[in-house]
Amino acid sequence: MEMLSDIQSFVIYLRDVKKTSKNTEVSYQRDLMQMAAYMEQKGITDVTKVTKTSLNSYVLHLEKEGKATTTISRVLASTKAFSL
């Protein structure tokens, strides 16, 4: 799955270039892997195919799961950093 290798590359970038803490790496990786799993269920396996609509759908999914607003904000921050 292409998105998974993109996520792994991003985590390596965080560690080697941005010099983030291990905790930050783990949090970003967890958030992005969960998002990737959701997108895969929707038939989206390429990061370039993720749209605003699909991200909004994911946020609604998280809300329905009862995730805290702070958790959803962190997930969005992880996603935004990944997409830059």
Describe the structure using short key phrases.
84 residues; mainly alpha; DNA polymerase, domain 1; 75% helix; 0% strand
Please give a structural write-up.
By secondary structure, this protein is mostly helical. The protein has a single domain, classed as DNA polymerase, domain 1, CATH 1.10.150. Helix 1 runs antiparallel to helix 2 and helix 2 packs across helix 4. The protein is globular, with a radius of gyration of 12 Å. The two termini are 20 Å apart. The mean pLDDT is 94.
Question: Which helices and strands occur, and which strands form pairs?
Answer:
Layout (H helix, E strand, L loop, with lengths): L1 H15 L5 H20 L10 H13 L4 H15 L1
CATH architecture descriptor text: Orthogonal Bundle
CATH class call:
Mainly Alpha
Taking the alpha carbons of the first and last residues, their distance comes to 20 Å
Number of strands: 0
Mean pLDDT: 94
Summarize the structure.
The protein has 84 residues and is mostly helical. It has helices spanning 2-16, 22-41, 52-64, 69-83.
